[in-house]
Every structure is written in C-alpha cells, then in structure tokens.
Design a protein that fits this description.
Order of helices and strands: EHHEEEEHHHH
Distance between the termini: 31 Å
Number of domains: 1
Length: 106
C-alpha cells in the first residue's frame, strides 16, 4: 500500500491531484488501520494507473461497490480468468473484466 504522497511522487504530481483522482473515482484508495487513505501499489503501472482501471472502477461504483468491496473484487482469485481481475488488467485483458464488472450491476 502506498500513501497519497507516495502515489503523488510516483506519478510526478502533487497530493491535491491524487486526492482529486480518488474523490472523482478515478483512483481507488482505502483506509488503513491508522485511518489514512492508501492506494494499493498494484493499481499503478510505474508512474501511471493500470490501463483500463478507471472504467472498471466506474462500473464497480455504478454497481454499488464501496472502495473496499471494489478492491476485494479486483484482487480475488478467479479460476475462470485465471488469476485476479487486476492481473487481467495488467495483462491487457480488459474487455472481459469490463464485461464482468458491468454484469455486477444487474
């Protein structure tokens, strides 16, 4: 998990911009045990967000998922993929992940 300042440094931006991304649902952040917002490191690919993450986060939010539930869905092993939805996004297999996230809303 990365703190918001760590994410900002990695992305080459400031913390205000990172907070805006979180607030707008374009970056997933959850509270740690000390109640600080943190971002899972695997949501970043170097200095940028994992490709296709934003539309998947939007679909999950539209389905009523909280950030914690969205993180759980993204990181839970699925034998039909194989791996996790987040693994599939890293491997540029976003079409199937978007389809599955969209189906969660119905």
């Amino acid at each position: 998990m990365l703190s918001l300042p760590e994410v900002a440094e990695r992305m080459g931006t400031d913390v205000v911009h990172v907070r805006t991304l979180v607030k707008d649902g374009q970056l997933l952040a959850v509270r740690d045990e000390e109640n600080h917002l943190v971002v899972p490191e695997r949501l970043l690919d170097g200095a940028v967000q994992v490709k296709h993450l934003v539309p998947v986060l939007t679909l999950l939010a539209d389905a009523g998922y909280t950030p914690e539930e969205a993180l759980r869905w993204l990181t839970t092993e699925d034998p039909t993929l194989p791996g996790t939805p987040l693994d599939a996004l890293h491997e540029n297999r976003a079409t199937e992940i978007k389809r599955r996230a969209q189906a969660l809303g119905f």
